[in-house]
Design brief:
alpha+beta; 4-stranded mixed beta sheet; 3-stranded antiparallel beta sheet; 14 strands
Length: 326
C-alpha cells in the first residue's frame, strides 16, 4: 500500500479505518486519495470514511467507521457495553452501531447506525479509548433505564458487575451524577445490595408484590436455623413447614440462564419439595405466577385458603384460577 507519514500508524490504531480529513491532515492530496481508492488500497465504508481492505468489516471496524463518520462522536449504550467486552462477541456483531453526538448537533440517520444526541457528552466519554466510547457505567445505566421491565434493568447491572468491568460504587457515583432518573430509588437499592452482598430489594419485592399483594399467609423472616449452624432462612411459613429462599446474587454473567433454572426449581417445589428458591425473575418479572405457585405449595402442606388476585391478575371464567397480566 502506498501510504506515507503518519497514515500507517493511524490505520494500526483505528483497525484499518481512516477518515478523509485524517488523510488530508497527514499530508495526502486529493489526487493521492483518489489513486488509493482507484487501486482499492482504500475502500469507501461511509461518506468520508475508508477501510484499508476489500473484505467484510469486523464489528470493531464498523464501530470505528461510525464514530469517524459522526465525529466528534463516541460509541454509546449497547455498543459502548459491547466495546468494553473486547473481541469475541459474535452474537451482536451485526447489530446496529449506536453512537452519541453533542445534543446541539443533528445528523441524518444511516443504515446500521443509530445516532443519539446526548447532553453532558464530554464528561461521559473515554475519548482516549479506541474507538472513543461512553464510560461503561454510563452506558449500563442508559440500558437499565431503557429496559422494558425491572428484571431487564437488574440483568444489565448484574452482567456488568459479573464481568468485573466496573464496581458497584462506581455505578452508584454515575447514578448520583444524573439529576433526573426514573425509578432512581429502585436502582440505588439494587446497586447498594450488590455492593453489600445482600438481597434486601428482592426480599421487599417478595413481601409486597407476591405475599401481601396476593394475600398469602404472613411469614416469619430471617429465622435462625440452629440445626444448620449460624444460618438464617429468608422466609418461613412455619405452620406449613415451607421455606422460601430469595437468591439476589448479581455476580452471575448469564442472568437469564439462572432465571430459567430458578423457575424450574420453583416448579419442582410445587411437586412436593419443601423449599422454593426464588430470584429476580420470579419476584419482579412474574410475581402473580409466583404467588400462584407458592400458594399451591402452601395448600399442599396444609394452608386452607387461596391466593387472591392482585390488580395485575385476571380471573379465568372457566377454572376460577388466576391468569397473569403482569
Amino acid at each position: 500500500m502506498d501510504f506515507s507519514g503518519s497514515v500507517p500508524e493511524l490505520l494500526d490504531l483505528q483497525s484499518d479505518v481512516v477518515a478523509r480529513h485524517q488523510l488530508v491532515e497527514a499530508g495526502l492530496a486529493e489526487t493521492d486519495i483518489r489513486r488509493l481508492l482507484r487501486r482499492h488500497d482504500l475502500v469507501r465504508a461511509l461518506p468520508g470514511v475508508y477501510v484499508a481492505h476489500t473484505g467484510p468489516l469486523t464489528w470493531q471496524q464498523r464501530a470505528w467507521a461510525a464514530v469517524l463518520w459522526a465525529g466528534p462522536a463516541a460509541l454509546c449504550g449497547v455498543s459502548a457495553r459491547r466495546a468494553a467486552d473486547g473481541p469475541g462477541r459474535v452474537d451482536v456483531d451485526r447489530q446496529p452501531i449506536h453512537v452519541a453526538i453533542a445534543h446541539a448537533r443533528r445528523l441524518a440517520p444511516r443504515p446500521g447506525i443509530v445516532v443519539h444526541r446526548a447532553r453532558g457528552l464530554q464528561e461521559q466519554v473515554l475519548w482516549n479509548a479506541a474507538p472513543p466510547r461512553q464510560r461503561v457505567e454510563e452506558a449500563v445505566l442508559d440500558l437499565a433505564l431503557a429496559a422494558d421491565d425491572r428484571l431487564d434493568s437488574v440483568s444489565h447491572i448484574a452482567d456488568l458487575l459479573g464481568a468485573r468491568l466496573s464496581r458497584a460504587d462506581r455505578l452508584a457515583e454515575a447514578l448520583e451524577r444524573r439529576p433526573r432518573v426514573p425509578d432512581r430509588r429502585f436502582l440505588e437499592a439494587v446497586i447498594a445490595d450488590a455492593e453489600a452482598g445482600t438481597c434486601s430489594v428482592l426480599e421487599h419485592g417478595y413481601l409486597t408484590l407476591v405475599e401481601q399483594a396476593h394475600r398469602l399467609p404472613a411469614a416469619a423472616r430471617q429465622v435462625r436455623d440452629s440445626r444448620k449452624g449460624p444460618l438464617y432462612r429468608d422466609v418461613c411459613y412455619e405452620e406449613m413447614a415451607t421455606i422460601v429462599e430469595l437468591d439476589g446474587r448479581l455476580h452471575h454473567s448469564r442472568t437469564r440462564d439462572r432465571d430459567r433454572d430458578m423457575e424450574r426449581d420453583l416448579d419442582a417445589a410445587v411437586d412436593g419439595s419443601v423449599t422454593a428458591r426464588l430470584g429476580w425473575g420470579q419476584v419482579y418479572g412474574r410475581p402473580c405466577s409466583t404467588a400462584q405457585k407458592v400458594g399451591a405449595l402452601l395448600i399442599a402442606r396444609g394452608w386452607t385458603a387461596q391466593p387472591a388476585p392482585c390488580r395485575f391478575c385476571v380471573q379465568s371464567p372457566s377454572s376460577g384460577s388466576l391468569a397473569v397480566t403482569w
